[in-house]
Specification:
The protein is mainly alpha-helical. The chain has 6 helices and 4 strands. Helix 2 runs parallel beside helix 4. It is globular and about 45 Å long. It starts with a helix and ends with a helix.
Length: 148
């Protein structure tokens, strides 16, 4: 199971990066520039890294304190002074950290429930992983529809 999850995480990120490369510089998708999209993605990879350890302790990840739009805005704002190359490097580093975390977890840690809930529903690390995978693919597909 873990090998498949890691493969899916890596493939989703590559799908996203390939799709972002379709986006011409100076264009926007839903008012977001390429840089802002990358900053947004980096923020969610950061949440994967930080949120995994919180979920394992039965705590709520940082993003749960915000609306999705609020968390996205915070992620973009945090990286406003970085250039695209710096944000891409940060994305790569954060994604690698997330994958390394997953590699070091047991199946029980990935699939077990440790007390964290979202909207009253129990969530686990597998939920966080699946959110990352589907988030990357959703953005990739949106960009492909617009630029292919």
């Amino acid at each position: 199971m873990k090998d498949k999850i890691i493969k899916d995480l890596l493939e989703a990120k590559e799908h996203l990066l390939a799709s972002i490369n379709l986006m011409p510089d100076g264009t926007a998708v839903d008012k977001w520039s390429k840089k802002e999209i990358l900053a947004h993605i980096a923020g969610w990879y950061e949440e994967g890294v930080d949120g995994t350890s919180k979920i394992l302790k039965g705590e709520k990840p940082n993003s749960f304190r915000y609306s999705v739009d609020g968390y996205n805005k915070r992620s973009v704002e945090k990286r406003k002074d970085k250039n695209i190359v710096e944000i891409l490097q940060e994305m790569e580093d954060l994604h690698r950290q997330f994958v390394d975390q997953v590699k070091n977890l047991s199946e029980e840690q990935i699939t077990g429930y440790f007390g964290t809930k979202l909207g009253g529903e129990p969530i686990n690390v597998l939920w966080m992983i699946n959110e990352c995978i589907s988030h990357d693919h959703a953005h990739a597909e949106e960009l492909e529809q617009k630029y292919r």
